[in-house]
Structure formats: C-alpha cells, structure tokens
Amino acid sequence: MVPVITIDGPSGTGKGTIAGLLAERLGWHCLDSGALYRVLGVAAQRRGIDLAAAAPLAELAAALPVEFTADGRVRLDGEDVSDAIRTEAAGAAASQVAVHGPVREALLEWQRRAARAPGLVADGRDMGTVVFPEARLKIFLDASPETRARRRHKQLKEKGLDANLATLVEDIRARDERDRNRSVAPLRAAEGAFVLDTSSLSISQALDCVMKATRSALPDLAWRDDG
Ligand code: DC
Fold it and tell me: To which CATH superfamily is domain 4-215 assigned?
C-alpha cells in the first residue's frame, strides 16, 4: 500500500507550502486538493451554475475538464487558470461548492488516485478524516485568523494587489465558519493527528516540526538533501 501523509487545516497556515516542501524532501507526489475545489468553483461560475445547486455541481465535478501539468500549472478546458483559481473570490466559491456531499463524493476517487508510489503528501481539509483514513501520518496545521489574514495581506501586496486587512480577517472567519460547520467532511483534526499551531513559526520552523513528526512516525523513510 502506498504510504500517505495528510496535512489538513485552514488556509493561511502554511499548509500548501509545507506539503510541497515535505513532498520534495521525500521525493513523493503532492496533492493540493483545495486546487480541485477552486477549479470546480471557477468552472461552475463560468458555466453559470448556481453554487448552491448540488446536482449540477456534482455532475460537473464528475467530468471536470481539468489538467494538472508536470510544471505545476492548472488547466481548465485547456486554458491556464493557475492564477485565476488563487483569488479570494475563487477561494470563497471553492468553499461554497465544497459543502455539498454529492460534490465531495464525485471528487473522492479522483483524489484517491493521486496516491501513487513511492508516496503521497495530501493537503486539504478532510485528507486525514475522509479521503485517506489509513494515512501513515496525519498532521493538522492551525493559526489564528489574524495571523492568517496578515500572511494573506502580505502575499497580495507582494503581487501588487490591493487588500484590506480587516476585510481579509472577516472573509477568513466566514470561510472557516462554513468549512468547520458543514455537515459533510467538516474541517477538523483527525483522531491521533499531530497538531501544530504555526502562528508564531516561520515556514522553515514549521517544516522542521513537521519533518520531526514524520521521522518519528515513519522512521524508515529515505530523505533527499538531508543535511
Ligand atoms: O486550501 P484552499 O484554501 O485552496 O481550499 C479552498 C476551499 O476548498 C476551502 O475553503 C474548502 C474547500 N476544500 C475542501 O472542502 N476540502 C479540501 N480537501 C480542500 C479544500
């Protein structure tokens, strides 16, 4: 069975970056499940599908014309949407389509197929609780909404985009509320998860903690560039 490490948590905790770095150090594949929900949200909006309409969304999810290319780009209907899916609006749309059970069901097999040798690091909200319950290690990253909003604010400024910190805090709270309180696969730490609050940690400090947890849970792993 292909070994899987899951990293769940809300956005702005460093989850995606850490999952990518950990996968790189292990020479494993990486699944950014949030990107899938984001593509679905964007695809639905482009087709004029109501984000509250579970059945047409599930139908779209089951045959989503998405492609994740080897160079890390995301294509929808053949068009590069890598930047378009990273906006706040795409995040909010993703969170809305993600509340529907039939949508999550339609994306389940797609995500499970990402578990290929030699291993997979999967990041999202329900990787440890629903998609990969047999994962060898389950990690849950958290951080305060204010810290996460500040990080997002910095990222947007660096991209030359205008952002209001107070609005970002509000948006993050709203998205958390929806992700944590939905009836299907709500955001929560899996049983036995290694929980880490990254509020006062840099990416490299958080990565160190995650690597320590990985070494202790999977002592026989081979590491790349491990000084
Ligand atoms: O990780 P992210 O910010 O790219 O995720 C965007 C939204 O997608 C998130 O607010 C909720 C949803 N999502 C989910 O429900 N389950 C996942 N495994 C990943 C993301």
Answer: P-loop containing nucleotide triphosphate hydrolases (3.40.50.300)
**Minimum CA distance residue for ligand 1 atom 18:** 124
Going from the Cα of 90 to the center of ligand 1, the distance in angstroms, rounded, reads 10
164 near 170, Cβ under 8 Å?
no
The DSSP symbol for 85 reads G
Atom of ligand 1 nearest to the CA of 123: 18
The pTM score is 0.94
Question: Ligand 1: which residue has its CA nearest to atom 10?
Answer: 95
Write out the H or E segment, with its range, that includes residue 90. helix 88-97
Asked whether 98 lines ligand 1 (CB < 6 A), one says: yes
Domain boundaries, the chain: 4-215
Q: What is the pLDDT along the chain (227 residues), one digit of tens a residue?
A: 899 999 999 988 999 999 999 999 999 999 999 999 999 999 999 999 999 999 999 999 999 999 999 888 999 999 999 999 998 899 999 999 999 999 999 999 999 999 999 999 999 999 999 999 999 999 999 999 999 999 999 988 998 888 899 999 999 999 999 999 999 999 999 999 999 999 999 999 999 999 999 999 999 998 987 54
Segment holding 80, helix H or strand E = strand 79-80
